[in-house]
Design a protein that fits this description.
The protein is of the alpha/beta class and about 180 residues long. It is built from six helices and seven strands, in the order βαβββαββααααβ. Strand 2 and strand 3 form a beta hairpin. Helix 1 packs across helix 5 and helix 3 packs across helix 4.
């Protein structure tokens, strides 16, 4: 089993931390992982993406030109990465950030209204965990328990009280993702 994933959006959406938590979760399950972030000089508002590979076997290179799965959180990222998904692959997009939806017919496309759900529930800071929940519903790469352990490892201790809310957000994402 090997999953090659790109997560892309604006800085401040939790793109890099979502990838980091996914990679840490793989480590918790003794899988081989790579986490390779890419972002502009702006911390918030600039584009950001991260490539994550989670595998049962050794990973030869963290650099990819095609992906099994893409999580797309804004229109510029859709324009850049839709064509880079392998035929038969998966594209997950947040309805809030995409005006013109994906057009490819040789991939599976899923919509998750994570931003709307996060705002409705007053859980805006868990937006990325809602999206991660959607991914884990489609591709159970790692367990929710491993994600919770990874949150403990990656979040500063002063934010550990937010872990139950993040776990709830993952479960919400698993419920609301739907085929587009």
């Amino acid at each position: 089993m090997k999953h090659e994933i790109i997560i892309a959006g604006f800085g401040g959406q939790g793109v890099l931390s979502m990838g980091k938590i996914l990679a840490y979760s793989g480590l918790m399950e003794n899988k081989e992982v790579t986490w390779m972030p890419a972002y502009g000089p702006e911390q918030r508002g600039g584009t950001a993406n991260v490539t994550v590979i989670v595998s049962d076997e050794r990973i030869s290179s963290p650099i990819l030109s095609k992906y099994d799965c893409a999580i797309i959180l804004n229109q510029p990222s859709l324009a850049k990465f839709e064509s880079k998904i392998k035929p038969g692959g998966i594209l997950i997009y947040d309805g809030y950030g995409i005006i013109n939806p994906p057009t490819r017919k040789d991939i599976k496309v899923y919509r998750i209204d994570a931003m709307d759900e996060a705002n409705e529930r007053n859980m805006a800071k868990t937006f990325n965990m809602i999206v991660l929940g959607g991914l884990l519903k489609l591709l159970p790469i790692v367990s929710i328990e491993s994600v919770v352990k990874a949150l403990r490892k990656t979040l500063p201790e002063r934010h550990h009280h937010l872990i139950p809310m993040n776990e709830e957000a993952i479960r919400i994402g698993m419920e609301i993702i739907k085929e587009a």
